[in-house]
Design a protein that fits this description.
By secondary structure, the chain is an alpha+beta fold. It has 2 helices and 7 strands; from the N terminus they run ββββαβββα. The longest helix has 17 residues, at 137-153.
């Protein structure tokens, strides 16, 4: 194992609509397709909530309100793209402050070609989340946790 020399901090939003669906992002970045929760990397000098609000503007073109913390990585996770980095991901519940103004797709990877920066969004019913469809290990864990939370509150 390579020596770990830095932390990589990422912040994500769990945006749930009135139909008990969560917003998922399908992206082409760093030469690969990925399915994940919306969000991204925190900048130096930025707080976690401010990071999520900035990411919302960048990804959706609109603002979100952060409602509360859901999960922070509580185990060691190497980063896939930076072998010397330890990944810490923070997940918040969030909601849009106004009606959605961007396209919601009914299918995964709804963009014309795989080019870096391509992104599409879709709603998935929480009870139907397929953990294996998520690309990254922490997102898989969070998807499972979200399903369990939903199941225990909606029986």
């Amino acid at each position: 194992m390579q020596k770990i020399s830095r932390f990589i901090l990422r912040v994500y939003g769990l945006i749930i609509n009135d139909y008990q669906e969560v917003l998922i992002s399908d992206e082409f970045q760093l030469g690969m397709r990925m399915t994940k929760f919306p969000g991204g990397g925190m900048h130096l000098g930025e707080g976690t909530v401010d990071c999520l609000k900035r990411e919302a503007i960048e990804e959706f073109g609109q603002t979100v309100e952060v409602l509360g913390h859901f999960y922070t990585t509580d185990y060691f996770q190497n980063t896939r793209f930076f072998p010397d980095g330890q990944l810490i991901s923070i997940y918040y519940f969030a909601r849009f402050t106004e009606p959605i103004k961007f396209k919601i797709s009914g299918k995964a990877f709804d963009f014309e070609k795989d080019e870096n920066g391509q992104q599409s969004f879709r709603w998935i019913k929480i009870k139907e989340l397929d953990v294996e469809k998520f690309t990254f290990p922490i997102d898989k864990k969070v998807a499972e946790m979200l399903k369990n939370k939903y199941d225990s509150h909606h029986k």
